[in-house]
Amino acid sequence: MNRRWTLAVLLAASMGSCTRGDLVATVQSPDAGHVGSSVDAGGPDGGEPPADWEAYCAGRGPPIVVGDADTDSQVCSGRLAERTFRHALCTCEGLALGASFETDAFHGTSERYQPGGAGGDVGVNGALSANDAVAVGGSLRIGGAGGAQLGQTFRVGEALHCGGPLTGNPVSATVVGDARVRGDVALPAFSVGGVLMVPAGHVLGPVDAAEVRREPVDPVIPCACDAASQVDVSGLIARHVLDNDNVAIGLDATAMEDIEGERALELPCGRFHLTRITGTGRATLTIRARTALFVEDVVDLGEGLSVDVQAPGELDLFLGGSVAVAGPLTLGSTATPSRVRVYAAGSNVLALSAGSFLAGNLYAPRAVLSLSGGAEVFGSVFVRQVEASGPLRLHYDADIRDAGAECMGD
């Protein structure tokens, strides 16, 4: 493998409550001295923090307001995450794999990652084309009428639902659970541990299944990519340009603009707004509490970006513009990927450079994720399309499915 990448997001945490002493932000810039607040700034007027601040910091209150500026409908960040990140990989279009592909799963809050754990579902709204081995630890759902063209070995650890024909010349093809194929099954051999369902009139090659049924197979749309179903990332950011805790900690929204050399921002518990993260240098964000960060415009850096989320910290990061990081991007920790969630509104190509490390959950349904060389992601990816020239491995932290466990009243 040419390099190691990793992607992590949080489980809405059972962390201890914050105190007023946690209302501290520090910005360090070696070339510009110390900027920002390093003392308890109190509430917006030097008094108490916002009324819902304590509940939010304890993991129960909502960090975001859903809808336009006139609605007061609220949702806890954990609820949003567990609804959004149901798959190790979801693509709004097809998935073309030139090298091997593998998913598995683990529970980051209770165990260390071990290869081959059951789970790690995959959803593809278009067709699937694979030239090499495919091993999905959970279920695989393919929505495109083009179905799946297979090469080398093919294994699905749970159920398969294919919206079109299943073709190719793999060495072996196995589905541990049930298989629904809405078209021909034209493989040298096909082993199904459960029931195989294929509509009447379609070709059915050599199969070994617990039961074969000739019955209709409904089409499937695995990933919620239509405009009405997408998370309104831009709307959420627009709301929190005005509704945030910046004043409470003395944070200037422009604190991460025009970076030369290195600049570091450490944020406490709360919901904060930055205009953009830009410059020729390198930026570091450090999170040690429950934090939501809303970046209104672009992320454009010349030397790299590091996002360090340390337990019991957790981060919901909302990005309103394009993302371009020329140097390495490092995000999260492989131990608990469920502690980091990134929601991006942009439609540009997210091209990651050598040395990037992604550990968390990425939601960018309008963007293409470009991975040159081998990539290893801890967490999950929900994008329009993936371009991967080398082997791709995704290790899904299943704790994200219970990220809203601590949420109440939303």
Automatic annotation (TrEMBL):
Pfam families: DUF7305 (PF23981). The keyword Nuclease does not apply. Residues 257-402 form the DUF7305 domain. Coiled coil: none annotated. It comes from the Bacteria. Keywords: Lipoprotein, Signal. Residues 1-20 form the signal peptide. This is Lipoprotein.
